[in-house]
Amino acid sequence: MKRSAFTGAGTLVVTAAAVVLLFSAPGARADGPPITGSVQNFIAFDEPIAAPLIPLATEDGGEQTFEDYRGKVVVVNFWATWCGPCIREMPTLSRLQEMFADDDDFAFVIVSQDRGGWKDIKRFMKRLKLDFPNSLLDDKLKLSNAMQVRSLPVVAIIDREGDEVGRLVGGAEWDSPEAIELIQYYLNGDGAHGTT
Known about the structure:
The chain is of the alpha+beta class. The protein is 32% helix and 21% strand. The chain has a single domain (34-187), classed as Glutaredoxin (3-Layer(aba) Sandwich), CATH 3.40.30.10. Strands 1-8-7-4-5-6-2-3 form an 8-stranded mixed beta sheet, covered by helices on one side.
């Protein structure tokens, strides 16, 4: 049986294409954030996007915007008590918050879309024995719409300048080594824009 001269060339082209795909896949970029394992669906933006400064209600009746966290790397979780994947990932987010509790350069904020307000949120937190000090309510979806949050859960990372640098849509294990490495990447300033 004769082999075509193109068989070897075809194999070479397929192999070259596979190598290109491998090194262009998320997490494989040497200059980008580590995106593997449980955070493999994280999308790092090519250009940071200014986070909207829309005031949201705090549990004590006050208001906050992302400006209140300027100078910190902020992990923002958009969620709701009626969202199954949100409920499953909340304990991992709680452990993540605990891991970075002593880091003054880090803030963890949860933004609830619950229209039932603080009553529903408090009942949920009590039932699951969770405590998130930086809880905000977006019951009118103003911030969610401005940030184009179309499904839940969504975790966005906002850099020290107040710009969103990436997000993960869907659930993840936020206390996994891969998630910790991703957040540490931004805390170390590796993902900061405006640096050389």
